[in-house]
Amino acid sequence: MTTREGIISGEDVDIFYDEFGDPNHPAVLLVMGLGAQMVYWRSDFCERIAAAGYRVIRFDNRDSGLSGKFDGARVGGLPLPIKMVQSFFGRPAKGAPYTVSDLAGDAISVLDHLGIARAHVVGASMGGMIVQVVAAEYPDRVSSTTVVMSSNNRALLPPPGPRQLLTLLSPPPKRADRDEIIEHTVQLGRTIGSPVYPPTLEQARRNAAEYFDRCYYPVGVARQFAAILATGSLHSYDAKITARTLVLHGTHDKLMRPSGARAVARAVPDARLVMIDGMAHDLPEPLWDQIVGELTQHFAHTGP
């Protein structure tokens, strides 16, 4: 399937995107998560959605992939453990170069650049937080909302699994070579990914090599995580969402626990929660038919 790509030159940051499918079809905007490049939405996955009659757009968030980097921007404020405590109580922390609201603005800039009035917005992990803000702040631009393996960071929710979060936030040693970094990425996938549908070791290494060769930028993770902490609870955003909303979550997710999905589904008016058996903090290929089926059914019920 032919793809198109480009770079959007913005006032704050440049955003790289590509797209699949017929430009005349209803648009689907895919938003990826913390430190994850847009190619974590695998091309074959995007093509399945496009084949169902949709124009599928994915993009790199700021500080990741081929989009612009905030080199030199430091994360200030209190030490991270204290910020984590603030987050547990739903309070925003200080010291971030940008917030989730800024990341939501980047998503809208993609639609603006492509001349798309409305889109079905789908976000995974941090991307799920971004689309909650998009749906609340830009309701006229959203045909439907889908929040995948995410949370609204409401006060007193169970925190992420310590081992999973520590692995996600701990980069390889600074002098690590390509092979060591690829192996670290493979181990991260095994720590946060599905124990029921793990990829083969060969496939995991092939994917990790692709991610490394495209862009390796671990310092962006700290700034994106700071943006999450600086935004605090999204509960007030959820109450403003008027678009039809689907919440998808894995039964085996220990990084973003299922309690986060339930919190989003309760907070967004008339949201529908679907738990995917065997899925963790990933999108395993054996589950693509089920996931894409849930997405396209949701899109069809909401119109273009």
Give a quick summary of the entry:
It contains eleven helices and eight strands. With 304 residues, it is an alpha/beta fold. Helix 3 packs across helix 4 (126-137) and helix 6 (178-192) packs across helix 7 (201-214).
Describe the structure.
By secondary structure, the chain is an alpha/beta fold. 40% of the residues lie in helices and 16% in strands. It has eleven helices and eight strands. It has an eight-stranded mixed sheet, with helices on both faces. Helix 4 links the parallel strand 5 and strand 6. Helix 3 (100-114) crosses helix 4 (126-137) and helix 6 (178-192) crosses helix 7. The chain is globular, with a radius of gyration of 18 Å. The mean pLDDT is 95.
